[in-house]
Amino acid sequence: MTGTAPARRAGSGTGRPSAARRTRSSLRHLFLAVVAALYLSPLLYMVVTSFKSRQDAGSSTPQWVPHPGSLDAYREILTSSDSPVLRWFLNSMISASGHALLVLTTATPAAYALARLEFRGRKALFGLIVATLFVPPVILLVPNFLVVNDLAWVDSLPAVIVPGAAGAFGVFFLRQFFLSLPAELEEAAQLDGCNRWQIFARVVLPLAKPALTTLAVLAFLANWNDFLWPLYVLLSPDSLTLPAGLATFQGANNVRYDLLMAGAVIASLPVMLLYLVAQRWVIAGVSRSGLKG
Fold first, then answer.
1. Structural contact between residues 173 and 215, judged by C-beta atoms closer than 8 angstroms
2. Among residues 42, 108, 50, 57, which one has the least CA distance to residue 75?
3. Residue 244: which of 87, 112, 124, 35 has the closest Cα?
4. Full pLDDT tens readout for the chain, 293 residues
């Protein structure tokens, strides 16, 4: 019959996904679940082992569920007079937080100047800053130690807070973000009578919260996980940060896997909590910082 609409194919135009599409989606989710399980299994086993008894933790047979569960490892590691873990934890929190604050303080104005201000030699200066990213950090151990020693900062927290606070990565990262911001916003603020500092403080910084949060998290993690430099400049047990302190603790308890895993849980817990709180800004900052070169 003329004028009759052709018969629709099965599954088309009904708003429901086809069987093949549902199968592909299920396989994709299954694959992602397997990958996630592979990545999370060491972390999960670390947590499980920290709640085992000393005998079960040293057993050659893996046990994913402790029978029975025990808090002895946490009690021992937190009350030990030879290994002041709580003191190391506090030192790491102060060091990482102070370092992140200094990184933001130094990198933000430098990145904005390189992104928005016109001055002679700007590109050459930026290229020189980026070139320092290719210098192996181990080369700077001796020069940094000599500077810290001359400032009488050895065996104190400023020795692990200040060095590296003016690194090139923060400048590069924030510059990329500032380049992605529309210049029209700053021009509109300038027409309203704002000077350069007011534009930076009232317009640019509020828009840069995702990038600033991302950089603060990355700087915090870099300082929190730093192991080699604190071993050079922190000498007394009470001055150590958590990674350096746990390394000495491991040397004294190399067969106490329950204590070692409990220390690892204490060291990783703040990092995971920090990322869970800031992940929304971290994702937004990373996605926006790569739009322009």
1. yes
2. 50
3. 87
4. 455 555 455 444 555 567 888 888 888 889 999 998 888 888 888 888 888 877 777 777 777 777 777 888 888 888 877 778 889 999 999 999 999 999 999 999 999 999 988 889 899 999 999 999 898 888 989 999 999 999 999 999 999 999 988 889 999 999 988 998 888 888 898 888 888 899 999 899 998 888 898 899 899 999 999 988 998 899 888 899 998 888 877 766 667 788 888 888 888 888 888 878 877 766 665 655 544 44
Check whether domain 83-288 has CATH 1.10.3720.10, yes or no: yes
CA distance 70 to 262: 11
Asked if the bond preceding 68 is cis, omega within 30° of 0, the reply is yes
Look at the block and give the residue holding tokens 């990198």: 107
Rounded-to-integer distance, Cα 170 and Cα 164, Å: 10
DSSP assignment string, 55-97: HHHT-SS--SS-SS---HHHHHHHH-SSS-HHHHHHHHHHHHH
Residue type, 178: F
Longest dimension (CA), the chain: 97
Give the pair of three-digit tokens for residue 11: 């599954």
Q: Which residues contact 67 (CB under 8 A, 6 or more apart)?
A: 56
